[in-house]
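Shipment paperwork, digital attachment
Item: protein structure file
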Amino acid sequence: MSVRPATLFLRLALRRAARGTGSQQAFFERRTAMQALPPLQQILGTIPWVLVGGLALRAYIPERMTLDIGILIHEHDGDAARQALSNAGYQMSGPLSIGGFSLQAADPATPPLDILTRTDAWVDEALAHPIYDAAGYPVLARPYLILLKLSAGRTQDLADVQRLVAYTSEDERNAYRILVAQEAPELSEDLEALFTLADLEFGAKEEGA
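Attachment content:
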């Protein structure tokens, strides 16, 4: 069986990782919601959705700016979401390689909107129990966000997972392990590598924190 490029990248990163070069735990506790979003609650109405991608990170770790807005919906809501966004002035840009579609608002200054559609067994549960960011937007819960980013396997996604697991407890990590083992066991090695990289760069979770 061939080895995923992401796994090879992580093996290289583990060999070259420097200990204790990352941000301290207090930095990871900062929460902001500086990047504005369109009124998706109003546009999508009763369609369940959650933020994913770069914007979702701000519910768990310090915010990083991103050039697009990514949300997850169930695939069976794809047509309804496309129609609702079209009614709000969005135009289709094209399909997403990972499933779903991208749209652009009439105002070119508005970031593109990527609608990720999935049919995985966990999607209904994840949509029914979101986390909320500082601005009150629904965000994909951390275990599912880790799973989604591991599956994508891009360098930025792996870096995001490393930050998402930084300073997490062993109980939390066991929950991530169980989910990945159930849904995508081939990604378990990558997850363990990212645990190790997070601890090498940032240090372990402080006792009692």
